[in-house]
Amino acid sequence: MRARPLTTLLLSSAVALGIAPTAGAATVKKVVDGNTIRVGAKTYDLLGVDVPACHAKQARAALKRLLPRNAKVRLKRDGAGKGRYVYRNHKLVNAALLKSGAARAGNLTNLKLAAALTAAQQAAQQAKRGLWTACAQPEDPRARARTDLAGRAFTRITATTFSSSETHLHLCADGRFVEDVSTYSEFGSGSEYPLPDSDATHRRYGGTWEVLAAEYRTEGAAARVRRVYDDGTESVLDFVATASGVTVNGASVSTQTSAVCR
Fold this sequence. Notes:
By secondary structure, the protein is α+β, with helices and mostly antiparallel strands. It has two domains: about 5-135, CATH 2.40.50.90; about 140-255, Lipocalin, CATH 2.40.128. Helix content is about 20%, strand content about 40%. It has six helices and 16 strands. It has helices at about 5-15, 55-65, 95-100, 115-125, 130-135, 140-150; strands at about 25-35, 35-40, 40-45, 50, 70-75, 85-90, 90, 105, 150-160, 165-170, 175-185, 200-215, 220-230, 235-240, 245-250, 250-255. The strands form three sheets. It has an eight-stranded antiparallel barrel with strand order 9-10-11-12-13-14-15-16. β6 and β7 (about 90) form a beta hairpin.
């Protein structure tokens, strides 16, 4: 049986997952860089696409070929972020860019098309296209991990029989971290939920952070982070990101942009 083209498979996957292009077409006004376009008065990043510095010019040129000025496209959300899937003539441009080797996969955590984007990148890697040959000196994964982590907040909620706690860890771009820990006691709280603030203790810790080691693979990324508290004590955290979510020291966390870091 004749194999179906990858672009057809990617489009079929998108439809099956319920994230096919929206009905209205938009017009590309400008390709800003290798993974950013301007549509009308708004600027959008291509979901799941990252461009290393060693291939920035080539990525922009490749995206301009895929999306010339005034090209008609359809944009589709996947989550609450500003990134978009971009479709032109039934082609998923995000995947086409990765398959050409002009760019690499970015953060695929929780993306519904993570598998399709990963497959497109793997095709480029196996064929040694674009950056997979041109970038002979790969970017230090520690620097990449620092960029990915900086400005993010990681929230973990734990519960026991008699108490629960919320931990909010903010990793700021200036190398500082802030950790807010709130513990709620259930003694005397009756049936009230959420627990009254009078039954809670709140603590804030601070210090510096650095990435000790990092590794990026098609199935996900991992980074080991050392924290040095202001009192001189230290701790190490292991971050792991896959298509199914993010964990810190094996515990699931939610992630969002930090409202504490400036």
